[in-house]
Specification:
The chain is α+β, with helices and mostly antiparallel strands and 105 residues long. The chain has 2 helices and 4 strands; from the N terminus they run H-E-E-H-E-E. The longest helix has 20 residues.
Length: 105
């Protein structure tokens, strides 16, 4: 891929990240916003394996409805409409809800 092609791809990904981040409600604290995250644990002597064309969003909130609000916002964006809630876990002690969302780019 030439320099112009790489530049255009980076700009596209930055715009997608900006769109995704614009839907994060104030009640949500993001812990991960990663493009093409690792899909396996790193192993010595092996090349890393990435989840290509994927955006990973992880966070925590004390208001579980904020996760629904985030999903609705992500799905309303044309290039981000393939958002899937991969995990939702509530901490019984603190009441905080942790979530993981995967978006196909």
């Amino acid at each position: 891929m030439n320099r112009i092609g790489r530049y255009e791809r980076v700009v596209r990904l930055v715009l997608l990240l900006d769109r995704a981040a614009s839907h994060v409600p104030p009640a949500v604290t993001l812990s991960v916003l990663a493009v093409q995250p690792l899909s396996k644990t790193l192993e010595e002597g092996k090349d890393p394996v990435f989840a290509s064309e994927t955006l990973s969003i992880r966070g925590v909130t004390n208001d579980a409805s904020a996760v629904s609000e985030l999903m609705t916002g992500l799905r309303s964006e044309p290039p981000l409409h393939e958002a899937r809630l991969e995990g939702l876990k509530q901490n019984r002690e603190s009441g905080a809800t942790e979530f993981k969302i995967t978006v196909a780019l």
